[in-house]
Specification:
The protein has a 7-stranded parallel sheet with strand order 3-2-1-4-5-6-7, with helices on both faces. By secondary structure, it is an alpha/beta fold. The longest helix has 29 residues, at about 115-140. Helix 4 runs parallel beside helix 6. The protein has a single domain (about 15-250), classed as Rossmann fold. The protein has helices spanning about 25-35, 50-60, 75-90, 115-140, 155, 165-185, 210-215, 225-235; strands at about 15-20, 40-45, 65-70, 95-100, 145-150, 190-195, 250. It contains 8 helices and 7 strands, in the order βαβαβαβαβααβααβ. The chain is globular and about 45 Å long. It binds NADPH dihydro-nicotinamide-adenine-dinucleotide phosphate. NADPH dihydro-nicotinamide-adenine-dinucleotide phosphate binds near residues 21, 27 and 150. NADPH dihydro-nicotinamide-adenine-dinucleotide phosphate (NDP) binds near residues 23, 100 and 123.
Length: about 260
Amino acid sequence: MKLQNEKITGGKLKGRTAVVTGASRGIGRAIALRLAAEGAAVAVNYRGSKERAEEVKAQIDQAGGKAILFPCDVADFSACESFFKEAIEQLGRLDILVNNAGITRDGLLMRMSEEDYDAVLDTNLKGTFHCIRFAARQMLKQKSGRIINISSVSGVLGNAGQANYSASKAGVIGLTKSAARELASRGITVNAIAPGFVNTEMTEGLSEKVRASAEAQIPLGKFGEPEDVAEAAVFLASQGAGYITGQVLHVDGGMAM
Ligand code: NDP
């Protein structure tokens, strides 16, 4: 899907506001662009890639949308508190939170360092908890909201060499279901998307051999694109998904079924 020159004139998320974590590149970038293309004002979060995040903002601005930039390490509890306070002040309200920020530090279990285990859990799982914690405060006041957490097929099926990552992404699914149960009575839905292999910087380092063996496990026979995941996020954020909560939507070419 071409987002480059798409003019934002209306859309199914007109008047809504969103925070997307890890939106400087890859899947988060595609989600921020699609939410903006549907009319949402978007807070673009990133950790270090300032220039990449500025490009995302510029693309949204050029298309007639609204984006604001927020550097914040989602693994940092108090930094997240300030981030959400400021984002909500600037956006006026918060309708959609997409917890997308994530990292990998792959390695076989027997050789995995404590540092690599903790770093992945801190960003992928604890970071998701932090953002839900501070976003939900505002959504509870509004008595409405959509929370979308990016999990992974690795969290559903497991993956050799990704014990830390799989644990974090399985944790995201448990967190999603508990949050869905806690927040449902206040009009807030919480769902997860579990992408399979998607063409981003996270997967570009895979060797030809690993890529070929991954493709052999995908019924649709190819890696997905960031926009495939963005479409699912737009759906879960839209009016039409209002009766869906606590679910895991697999966007993986059929890997987990
Ligand atoms: P990329 O590596 O391309 O991008 C990761 C993004 O997360 C960047 O914007 C990065 O910011 C941000 N980020 C990383 N750590 C932090 C942090 N501590 N605080 C704030 N932002 C952070 O990853 P993908 O786009 O491939 O992945 C996005 C999500 O989708 C992740 O949760 C990933 O686990 C999940 N996923 C990806 C799959 C794939 O095949 N690509 C498959 C299944 C799930 P910066 O640029 O500033 O570093």
